[in-house]
Amino acid sequence: MACFIVSAAEAAVVTVVKKTEEKKETNINDEEKVNGTIPLSKKLGWLSNMLWGGSALLAFEHVWHGEVVTWFPFLTAMADKKETIEMLKEMGTVGVSMAVLVTVVWAIICAGAEHLEKSGRNEVSEIDTVD
Amino acid sequence: MTLLISIFATIIATIKWYTAKDNRMQIGTLVLMYLGASLMWLVDAVFEYVEMGEAYFTPAPMDMLNDAFLGLSVVALGLVIWIVRLIIKQPKKIG
Fewer beta carbons within 10 angstroms: which end of chain A, N or C? Predict the structure, then answer.
């Protein structure tokens, strides 16, 4: 009914946090950037893309099924009180589960990227020791 | 059907991203978009399965056709969003 709204709301929060983090990172000098790991703003960008992209495509599905319309209040379930309650229940179960799963998968991707980067750095330091 | 089509789109985009020589085309954005949508539809499918039981795996032919049409439209929309974003963020220098 409107489960994508939960992910879209999380996406909005993540985008704001990402912008704030980007501002912080510009103050860090270049040497630290080279030695450091993947910046948090970049990782948040991945989550933002997953959430915005997923929400947009799911919103399209809801338009397809006639659950989202172009006139106020934009959600057909809002016209009836009983349906509104059902919609809110769905947002609390399906919507929250969607946001949680996307965030968990993002955390796994971040952990994998960190691991790959760390093993890559170790290889470089081994080469440096040989030289 | 929509879930299946979006999963295949994610896999194809991931292969393209993995074999790409550089990040000029920003295929990673497309991968993340399709991955996000696939995960969301997966959750939707799980909830539907819990509600419907085995009937979830035997949809009516017309429903399947409609879902397949929707899945392809979703893939097309994802590509449109990706191309528009690519042109805005990384316009090709002319001249």
Answer: C
